[in-house]
Amino acid sequence: MNTPWAEQGAARTWAVGALCRAIGDALSARFNPVTVRGEIAGFTRAASGHCYFTLKDDAGQLRCAMFRRAAGLLDFLPREGDLVEVRGRLAVYEPRGELQMVVESLRQAGQGNLFEQFVRLKAKLEAEGLFEAGRKRALPAMPRAIGVVTSLGAAALHDVVTALSRRVPHIPVVLAPASVQGTQAPAELARALRQLARLDGGPTPIDVILLVRGGGSMEDLWAFNDEQLARVIAASPIPVVSGVGHETDFTIADFVADLRAPTPTAAAELCAPPRQDWLDALDRLEGDLADAAHRHLDTQAQRLDRCGQRLGRPSGLVGRQQMLLASLSQRMRHGVAARLQREGQAVAALDAAFARGVERLGQRQHERLARAQLRLRLLDPALVLQRGYAWLEDEGGTAITSAAALATGQAVRATLADGQADLTVRAVRPGQG
To answer: Which CATH architecture has domain 139-273?
Structure first.
């Protein structure tokens, strides 16, 4: 009887691991690299830095792994339900025999192209120096008027007006309406900024401009990522505060503006210190000014009293001046006498020092002369002759200092300590040295 095994004959029998590798190789050759679009589910980041998640849509799901190197290049934090596009390689995870995708790059779908445009424009303007902190200006401590650029129907306008009315109701607010969403919005925003800038020299000069809008998606906020609008903000002669979206939203306008606020309300608060703070400061200054005025008046009153006392009794002033003159005269006499005494003592000391110096000099010269006489006596040849030596010289009076200068029969004269003797050389015996 035939069995399924017999029917297969010599069909190849695969090892599990070998079959998984073969399937993986076939997938790699057929599909890789591959780009897939789907929704993130079950996103986790391991302690090693690797990320694991499932990519799904209505028709299926695919397990994904993103290793630490690729995960480190992400410019946003993936969240549950995000619609994304992933690029990578299909493979089989052999220990489980499961299909998975090794993700090499991940970007948000839908706004992916917008985000790439945002990144390119940001890099371009940053390279031109439009984001540098050195070109940004500080906000005025007390603006004379505040300009606001936003939509008439925006909730941000209500938030800004409410904050300004509460904190600085005395400061005028000038509104330049403009669309904050749509294709026409960038041009309208730029035109509104230029309109407020022209009011700088008007009767109520505007010292700061608020560019505000409520939160939304990247598409909703895209008008604030326009290059021409960014250049108008950078060229504005009036400081611009950007309050676009929520705290986590960033636009090109935020980077170019002189100051970025996390919300429209925060933008209003940054340029409008509370009115009560200024009133309190004014009260403190008023108190300081009153105290200073009272102290000055007290000082001048005391000075006037002293002047009046001096004018009322001029004889007392003359008497005090005479006493001062007498005191100075006495001090002068004592000073001259003391000076003369000190000078006399100094002269006497110098005289004594001179006498001692002359005496010490004479003693030193006498001792020096004695030492010279002693050395001279020690060099006297007579002292040498007294010790038994003799002085020899030939008939011409030349001193004989060597036996080699003598000859047998030669007449010589010897000088001794107490006289001279004429001698004849009988024999010459040169020394052994």
So the answer is: 3-Layer(aba) Sandwich (3.40)
